[in-house]
Amino acid sequence: MKYCRFAVTVFALAIVVIPGAAQTKKNWTPPRTSYGVPDLQGIWNSSTLTPFERPKEYAGKEFFTPQEAEAFAKEELYRVDGDRRDGGGGADVGRAYNEFWRDRGKLSPDLRTSMIVDPPDGRIPPLTPQAQKLVAERRAANRGHDFDGPENRSLAERCIQVRNAGPPMIPTNYNSNYQIVQSPGYVALLSEQIHDVRVIPTDGRPHAPSSVRLISGDSVGHWEGNTLVVETTNFTDRTAYENSGEHMKLVERFTLTGPETLMYEFTVNDPESFTKPWTARYPMMRTEDKIFEYACHEGNYGLSGSLSGARAQEKAAAANRGSK
Fold it and tell me: I want to staple 159 with a disulfide (CB 3.0 to 4.6 A). Which of 35, 198, 205, 296 is the partner?
C-alpha cells in the first residue's frame, strides 16, 4: 500500500507541477554571482525513478501516461525494494544494502520514459564493429580471471570511479548528491560518492595536451547564456563508459530552470565506439541536506575477501612445487 500512496503522490505532483514549472522557467531570472555568471552553487540531488534507457515495453512512447507512470513506479519500487525478504538466502545477501541507504526519487515531472532523449528511441546506439571486437577481447581476456588481482575488478569496487560520480553523472539512487562551488574562472563539482572533486576551469584555457590521459578525462568549461557547458576529453582506454573509448568527447550542460531545479544534460560523441552520438537529460533538485565524507577503501574487506581464493591457490601451488 505504501507504494500505491507514493505513486499517486508522484503523479498528482507531476500533473500539478508541470504548468507551474513551465511558467517559472519563462518568467524566472537565475541569480548571478558578484562576477556576473549564473549562480549554480548549492547541493543538488539526482535521485530519480526515470529509466536511463527506455524500457522495451514502452518502445515508441516518449512519455508515460499518468496511469502507465503509476503502474511503472509501483512495479519498480517493488522490484528494487531492499527490505523485501521473499527471495531466499541469496536475495537477502544481495539486499544487504537495504532501503535505509537508498534514495529512490520520483519520476521526472514530465513523466519521460527515459533519460536518453536522443536518439528518439531512448536507447544507447549500437556499438561499432570495432568497439564490439574490443569489448569481446576484453571479456575473453578476463574470463576465468575475475578474481586474480585487483586489476580484474571493477573501478567501482576498487573505489576509483563510480557511475554517478562521472563524468557523465548517472543517477544510481545511492549517494546521489552533488555540491557545486564557484569562484572567478572556476567551477568545482563535488560528488558525494567516492568524494571526487572536479575542478573545472572556465577562464578560456585549452585542454591538456592529448598525451595527458586521465581516468575522468580533462574538463574545461564556458558559459553560454545561463548554461554552464563543460567539455571533457583525454580519457583513458580504461574509462570505458558504456563501452566508450579513450577518444570519447563528452559535453555536459548545467542550466538552472527554477529556484529548486538544475537541468543536467550530456552528449556522448565517440565515432569509434558508437554508431551515432547520443544525449541524456534529467533534472536535479536542490536539497538542504548535507554531504558527509564517503569512506570507501577504509574497511574495504570485501575486495581482499574476493581475492583470497586466488591467493590460496597460489600458496598451494607454491607449496606443491616446493615438495617436489
Answer: 296
Domain containing residue 127: 2-286
Task: For residue 9, tell me if it sits in a domain.
Answer: yes
In this structure, the number of other CB atoms found within 10 A of the CB of residue 270 comes to 22
Question: Are the C-beta atoms of 242 and 266 separated by less than 8 Å?
Answer: no
Task: Provide the H-helix boundaries in the chain.
Answer: 2-27, 66-80, 88-94, 129-142, 301-322
C-alpha cell, 90: 541469496
Q: 308 in a domain, yes or no?
A: no
- What's the pLDDT at 88? 65
For residue range 102-115, list pLDDT tens digits in order. Answer: 888 899 999 999 99
Q: Which residues contact 170 (CB under 8 A, 6 or more apart)?
A: 52, 115, 163, 164, 280
Has residue 312 been placed in a domain?
no
Domain count, the chain: 1
Please report the pLDDT score of residue 91 as a whole number.
61
Residues in the chain, how many? 324
Q: What is the pLDDT of residues 262-308, one digit of tens each?
A: 999 999 999 999 999 999 999 999 999 899 888 877 667 777 887 88
DSSP secondary structure string for all residues of 234-286? -B-TTT-GGG--TT-EEEEEEEEEETTEEEEEEEEE-TTTBSS-EEEEEEEEE
Count of alpha carbons within 13 angstroms of residue 320, beta-carbon side: 6
